[in-house]
Amino acid sequence: QVHLVESGGGLVQAGGSLTLSCAASGDVRCIPTMGWYRQAPGEVRKLVAAITSPTTIWYADSVKGRFTISRDNAKHEVYLQMNSLKPEDTAVYYCNDPDGTTCPGVEIVWGQGTQVTVSS
Fold this sequence. Notes:
Order of helices and strands: EEEEEEEEEEE
Radius of gyration: 14 Å
Number of helices: 0
Helix content: under 10%
Distance between the termini: 40 Å
Strand order of the largest sheet: 2-11-9-4-5-6
Strand content: over 45%
């Protein structure tokens, strides 16, 4: 299994910045792609950014130019630098592999997420 733990959320004013971290443990070799999702109240969970080793990166249009995803493979960590935050960025943020694991039988256990609240 792969276990994920998110951290770094908090309350910030519009226009502010936060950096989220995701620590992976377990069969980390099975998750070459990592992404950040968010889920606002009453909405479905949506992918907002993804990174594949070594350098393929994707962003949702809603965060392009404001968010930056990066990873430290040695530490098995993924980060999301969020700038120019807007109230509509308020959500619980999760990390996971949008492509699923590359290892048969290995599952990814969703973390509890980290709450980001942006006040206007």
